[in-house]
Design brief:
GO terms for molecular function: actin filament binding; ATP binding; microfilament motor activity. Keywords: Actin-binding, ATP-binding, Motor protein, Myosin, Nucleotide-binding. By secondary structure, the chain is of the alpha+beta class. The chain has one domain: Kinesin motor domain (Kinesin, 3-Layer(aba) Sandwich). The protein has 7 helices and 4 strands; from the N terminus they run βαααββααβαα. Strands 2-3-1-4 form a 4-stranded antiparallel beta sheet. About 5% of the residues have low confidence.
Length: about 180
């Protein structure tokens, strides 16, 4: 099976039709599900230097519609070539203000972490998205940007002008 991969690098440093968010979260966090769903961070692989183990873990996760996997703070995404119900408002809320590894791997974890670092540390952030043609770079960018804009609006509502300043910094190139 050929799998195209896209990488999302956080710079501070598909098969079933439907899986609802709660069952997906349970699958990601339950130890007994590890053999079926793979590990959510390649650093946790027993044979972490094996290409076969790496690809095998990606296949397991792909077969369970778990398209995101970490390697430390790097997020690997496999294009499912279909719509998955993993970009809902419930997902956005679940990843909001959570520590990076507190939730299963997701583009929302990267986006929220970058946003919080921008606001709390007042430092520009960079999210690098790379991959081959058809690997899902555009979709990942759109999902990340949509969440980023939503977070900016909420921040603007709560923080007034500070949120506006962050949005202006983002537009000016502070967050890419």
């Amino acid at each position: 099976m050929f799998i195209e991969i896209q990488s999302l690098i956080f710079a501070i440093m598909d098969t079933k039709d439907y899986i609802d968010f709660n069952s997906q979260l349970k699958m990601e966090t339950g130890l007994h599900e590890r053999d079926r769903a793979g590990v959510q961070d390649f650093v946790l692989l027993e044979n972490y230097q094996s290409e076969e183990a790496f690809i095998g873990n990606l296949k397991k996760r792909f077969q369970e519609d778990l398209i995101y996997t970490y390697i430390g703070q790097v997020l690997i995404s496999v294009n499912p070539y279909k719509q998955l119900p993993i970009y809902t408002d419930d997902h956005v809320k679940a990843y909001r203000n959570k520590h990076f590894y507190e939730m299963p791997p997701h583009i929302f974890a990267v986006t929220d972490n970058a946003f919080r670092s921008l606001i709390e540390e007042n430092r520009g952030q960079c999210v690098l998205i790379s991959g081959e043609s058809g690997s899902g770079k555009t979709e990942a960018s759109k999902k990340g940007a949509a969440v980023h804009c939503r977070l900016l609006r909420k921040s603007d509502d709560r923080r007034g002008r500070q949120g506006q300043a962050a949005e202006e910094q983002s537009r000016a190139g502070g967050l890419r």
